[in-house]
Specification:
homohexamer, about 250 residues, alpha/beta, four-stranded parallel beta sheet, about 45% helix
Amino acid sequence: MRLLLLNPNTTPAITAQVAASARACALPGTEIVEATCEFGAAVIGTRTENAIAAHAALQAALTQQQPYDALVLAVSLDTALDALREALDVPVVGLTEAALITATMVSRRAALLTLGPRMVPMYAELIAHHGLTSRVPVVEALTLTPQDFLSSPLDAREVLREYCERLAQQGAEAIVLAGAVFAGHAAPVQSTVSVPLIDGAPAAVALAEMLVRLRLPKAQSGSLAAPHLRASNGLAPQLAAWLRREKP
Amino acid sequence: MRLLLLNPNTTPAITAQVAASARACALPGTEIVEATCEFGAAVIGTRTENAIAAHAALQAALTQQQPYDALVLAVSLDTALDALREALDVPVVGLTEAALITATMVSRRAALLTLGPRMVPMYAELIAHHGLTSRVPVVEALTLTPQDFLSSPLDAREVLREYCERLAQQGAEAIVLAGAVFAGHAAPVQSTVSVPLIDGAPAAVALAEMLVRLRLPKAQSGSLAAPHLRASNGLAPQLAAWLRREKP
Amino acid sequence: MRLLLLNPNTTPAITAQVAASARACALPGTEIVEATCEFGAAVIGTRTENAIAAHAALQAALTQQQPYDALVLAVSLDTALDALREALDVPVVGLTEAALITATMVSRRAALLTLGPRMVPMYAELIAHHGLTSRVPVVEALTLTPQDFLSSPLDAREVLREYCERLAQQGAEAIVLAGAVFAGHAAPVQSTVSVPLIDGAPAAVALAEMLVRLRLPKAQSGSLAAPHLRASNGLAPQLAAWLRREKP
Amino acid sequence: MRLLLLNPNTTPAITAQVAASARACALPGTEIVEATCEFGAAVIGTRTENAIAAHAALQAALTQQQPYDALVLAVSLDTALDALREALDVPVVGLTEAALITATMVSRRAALLTLGPRMVPMYAELIAHHGLTSRVPVVEALTLTPQDFLSSPLDAREVLREYCERLAQQGAEAIVLAGAVFAGHAAPVQSTVSVPLIDGAPAAVALAEMLVRLRLPKAQSGSLAAPHLRASNGLAPQLAAWLRREKP
Amino acid sequence: MRLLLLNPNTTPAITAQVAASARACALPGTEIVEATCEFGAAVIGTRTENAIAAHAALQAALTQQQPYDALVLAVSLDTALDALREALDVPVVGLTEAALITATMVSRRAALLTLGPRMVPMYAELIAHHGLTSRVPVVEALTLTPQDFLSSPLDAREVLREYCERLAQQGAEAIVLAGAVFAGHAAPVQSTVSVPLIDGAPAAVALAEMLVRLRLPKAQSGSLAAPHLRASNGLAPQLAAWLRREKP
Amino acid sequence: MRLLLLNPNTTPAITAQVAASARACALPGTEIVEATCEFGAAVIGTRTENAIAAHAALQAALTQQQPYDALVLAVSLDTALDALREALDVPVVGLTEAALITATMVSRRAALLTLGPRMVPMYAELIAHHGLTSRVPVVEALTLTPQDFLSSPLDAREVLREYCERLAQQGAEAIVLAGAVFAGHAAPVQSTVSVPLIDGAPAAVALAEMLVRLRLPKAQSGSLAAPHLRASNGLAPQLAAWLRREKP
């Protein structure tokens, strides 16, 4: 099985970092192929960048040279998830979607923790879009910056640990860590936190593998049926060609 | 006052059509400036095209030569609405947003009518994103195609009339018509339907004018504060420059 | 255009105060006509008074000597809003309704701030009635009294400022100020608060003007269609006559 | 125990009819005292009339000559329910509130049936205000008029029976009959309908008796605490005096 | 009238305690019959124990020697409530259900207070199951243990009082006390708390008496219709016989 | 990896049937161990039977002779799911939970189809309990009986096919088939239905495998932490011993 790990931002190092986490959990026969978008933000951190990244992700996904069996979105905002599900014939899974699903299977009421206050409503909207607000009603942001994790990892980790344990004491039965910045920090923190900390990457790989194994057919009706015969202007030729193709 | 009427698709004729409707309602001192995106679908009708259009709309909005006092999105899917509100210092209003708001002021329970079954969940999600599902709980699609409105306008209009009146008899107290295809057909149908039919274009212009008059400051915190100092790759130079500017 | 600014309480000074705010924002051709109810509370501050005021507002609205093109309710509880929409052939807009709508166009998640803890559930119910709880999920009350604003305006203003900024830091992207007591205080506070503070009066005027311009027909079916041929006892003669009129 | 059965409309015959139903179920020691409002609609059937009736009900409740232990609102729209709970020191129960509560104890998913399409959104809003939309998600209106029940009671009853059974077949596990018009028809129809039909009057009496027996104290804080020291103009002297009384 | 007070746990002393509270409020002609389950937890405090108790409660209810007119569940988790309503031909009422219903009739926004953090999500789910989350949105747990109430009742009571008053100051207009541990403590605390404290036992008895008096028929369709002709293995003979009986 | 496939009813043939479906999808190293409960309904079809089955499932799960790495509940009602998650140290997955999760990854709005009208509210409540009502808002029941599928499988299959296609035309983008009766019929029907039909068994196995691979720690706080030191009476000795064990 060939999984395309597609990073909607333009920083291959982040792709590689998520890929490492993904490979650590993938099944023996699963090949993780990395792809990084060609245009857009270095790191998606705003609504504007996320909107641009959707275009980049679609273009990258629809113009891959090699076929793939499923796509995992290597970004916590589940960028372009529904559009990719509409466009592609193969399963697509988002990191935060996967983490939220996992949280619902090990808790009744979970929290999502991210970095930076402006991300809080964006993740709350994403959870609502997934329909899971009643299961993951709490979204909070650490007051740290990504730089804090780079420059003082042990201090940052301690702040993360205290924050997670406080969330647990306030009733969170699992905690989704949303953001590439947490990679590598969840494991050492987990041992002293009383509830599971959930990283989306391994869950997303497992869910993608599951969907490939289930061999569900692509919907032929509804809002996720593939477009065809669509006219466009000014797009990358391969993307435009894909839009105007005959009914598959 | 200068309103940018920005069409996220790439068909200037549709821009012009919405602009005509907008100008018919604009205040005397309001200038409506048309803009059509440079890349993307001819007519947005799928999730894929809508995602691509968000990039195009942002690029167009952020790279206009002339300043403008507010932006009206000339598309029924309110494409990139939140991202534009984040990016721009001026008010932004979406067509369907404006129509939904209007519906809430003349009804307790409204319906939205569109064309094509695949649009139904997309509009239902948009209404939910606006938080108005309890006010506009019904979303339905005419079984006609845009071609039907072109080739047999009187027949299509009669189908539209019957559908609207049935929705009214089933409890819709106002009906939002979502889609450029309805332009020009609402007025003749209205006279024989017992509840208001709502077109988003004039409402959006009036709301944009209202927001300009209210002179509310741009938020400096939260998820709609403007990005700055953001690194990117492969974007149009003006867009990239805007992302990496100093804090405004 | 002639807007009836109807105050459901019985204190003309409050009517005049809201009217001043309304006139400052009205379009050149808009005449603001003040009306104050003939019976009821001096200042509506309880459920009982609000219920009585609904009768007073209906009687005042239906027995005006001069015609008017729209009605703006000069009270933050949107008293009798739906009943007025049912009764009148012209548009009706409430102050808090208008402020909430405005908040949804400049934020994703807003707060409403009022005075006095007993108002908190009343406003929360009003927001729910408007269907906007997911957009304005936070309702809080300053611990000040109206007297504090009169006797120590600068101190009160500082408390207001601190409260608003705290709400912003907790994620409110806009703040609706609900209550006549805030009039005149929002502007000086705004300059040092990082998110927009929203006063309902100018927004309500602009929305009323918009609805007049849109010329939507009055619903002939549903719960907002006008009553007719209704028998009553003991009401003001003009009100009783209006209820028993033939179908308009 | 003395229960005030207060009819917010002005037709004593309806009060008497509800009182008969209430007395048939009341406990031996319960005296049902009838009161009919002095002003307002003969029969409340619109939002306007319901708003006026709230004032009438408050005036009647607060100016009774004789004390009473609880108040039952003899109207299906639960007119002024919250305001009465705020104003009075004794328990208050609404007919539809009581019927809805009863429905939740004998079903998981109930329906409410009324007469006249304009009542449908009004009852749906009332159910939402009571917080019970998920338990009573269906509200429908018979296409009959009150006259049909008077002129052809057997025919109307058969229509009612068919409608109820259809609702049951569609999943309603109990049916609330909302409207005085149904009085006397539920019992004969019940025997051939497969789910319970619920009349609010006996339930409201029993709930009022329960609340009297529970002797819960009146809230001293929150939005249902009694008003005091409130200034007013133009009200009935007893009502005005009650509003301006010292803290009880 | 004969009410079966069925305790789903296996501690007769708790049954007796709830029965005392129930009898203090029951109508003169109401006989309260105590029943304690034969197997299960001494005190239900976990999901596992609650699930086991449902079986025990059904077996006890369906194998009583003497008939009864209604069943009151003497446990705060409303254990097996829907299953008992399905199985039995007589009304069934739960303690917390009754307390929640009572709270909705004396407040607009109530809180539920329990003991032990693990109970918080369990009660929140129960409130959601009853459809009352919007009316009782707050669920909190005292940090005391049942032992604290036994060993230092006055100290525990003071903690309870402070907690209740804080909830009231934060907007709770009534407080449901959920847990047998609070029995006997509510009354002394009530006098110094500004909102009603609600104990489920008397309310449940009154609601059961009400349902008996209303004589609603058992549903013959839907998910609460009685099972019949059901095959089973390994159950208590009387329970198995009841399941396989002919249609009643 | 050893998965315990636990059937909460008492019919080993059904266990074997689900196990066959589970094995067809399991990973090479996964051993599926079948377990059937010792007491309870032959086939769970009512609330009463489902409540009894929870006890049986807990007893079976906690008294297995051999250890297992995860538990899959071989029943569509996800019987005792939360209690098992509390009790066990290993992951637990329910069939319908797994099917619903799968549906959310291949559709935006799905439907659940079952057999028998009394199951409709039970599944709707289950979906609400999982928090997924907005994603799977439609629950309907075929008017067939299990016998129809046995006696006339081709006819029943055609009814199923027509029903599924109608749901798709009404907007269902995926369809969860809930009930063992559908086993073996989904595949032949799928080829002529335009949206994916989802069987819970393979999805549940894959999700259980995923959770085992993720090695998330058991929560030590919250409502899913394992009980300990719990006193009981009358339970199976092993179950009682487990409840009263020291803190693990």
